[in-house]
Amino acid sequence: xxxxxxxxEDREQIKELLRHYYNLKNGRSHPFIEEEDFxxxxxxxxxxxxxxxxxxxxxxxxxxxxxSSQLMIRKADLLLCSKKYKExxxxxNMVALYDSTDIGLYILKTDALLALDKQQDAVELLEEAxxxxxxxxxxDLLFELADVYDDYEEFDKVFDCLKLxxxxxxxxxxALYKICFWTDFTGRSEESIKLHQKIxxxxxxNEIAWFNLAxxxxxxxxxxxxxxxxxxxxAIDEKFDYAYRNMGDAYLRLRKYKEAIEVLEKVxxxxxxxxxxxxxxxxxxxxxxxxxQARFHYKKAVHLNQxxxxxxxxIATTYMAEGQWQQAIKQLEQAMLIHKNVPEYNxxxxxxxxxxxxxxxxxxxxxxxxxxxxxxxxxxxxxxxxLINAQLYEEAVEQCLNAIKATDGKxxxxxxxxxxxxYIDKNKEAIQQLELAMEKSPKLLKKFIELNPALLQNPAVVxxxxxxxxxRKRKK
Length: 476
Hints:
The chain is mainly alpha-helical and 476 residues long. 78% of the residues lie in helices and 0% in strands. It is built from 27 helices and no strands. It is elongated and about 115 Å long. Mean pLDDT is 91; it is low at 1-9.
């Protein structure tokens, strides 16, 4: 790398060089131009995106210095930029005859081979080159090989290359950052744990190695160990925001919501606010039963991302938990302006309408949910409960039969069918359906009673329930 010079001085030098170059080009008298000066002239044109002039300069330079491998490599690079891959490869093959020790030769030749769709040739070239170079040059070649494998979707080999780099240079930041991603992508968490434990044994204050170790534990769902490793990472670098972020996720997985809130708030202190962080904090408060704080953070998330319909849905669920049905409907309507055909949104707004005794609207929304996902029992359950609450018993009977057919005979709908039959005084059929449902899943009787507690006054229902209760006790 050339020594630093003030900008104006450097600019004057290049102007002088260009004047000599144009004199040479036009056959006029000129001072001798060194090989390194030609490289500067070529770089000048290249930086100006004037590839034609740069190629002309490199040809003139090669005329002056016909055995210069550096100028030939410059020419190959320019040909690659001009998408003349075959010509570039021919030039590089010529360079190899003069000087096979320049790493740039192998890097550019790899690019040419890949552009010509000769991946295997590129891999063989780089593997051959790895035997010729050591230290940082060998590491550069391994990165190049990793990129080749990435382009051709041989992802395990990408991981292998990065592992080799870290075997030779355990503190290489680029490799440490990249292998964290590829560990997760390839699922090779156990290997990553061993690799990073070895690095940490040598370099105990390498915070990226601690982070990668934690992420590998997290990949194996060993969340307690992951948290311990993240704690070491932030002890070394207290502003390591990604460690706090991932630790928050680990606490969430362990349902330790207070701890998750604490570390996620630290992320907000260290970085620009993100909707996903506010959403995660809102989720934690929601799980802790603090709907006001949950809603506050969901709204913060919406402020940053107004096109995410699920955030409006989550705000609505906090209002629903508080029985604020109209407020919930407003949020759900906002969500449905973004994504109308989401079954969960239709079910939620149907529930609100049902609570407000607006049964016609509720049935419509539940019907949409059933239409959107006919095999899913949630929409059918909501629809049938609504019909029963609206005293539309004949319709409930019909929809129970439709639900049984659509969901391959889910037992809950046999229970609901029994309830609807009781309501229209078809007691004999109702008892038959109840018997059938109890044979399949007696534990669902609770849902049956919740929908019509008065049936506990029916001797036949009490008799069936008692019989299956005794049967369960005998089995125990």
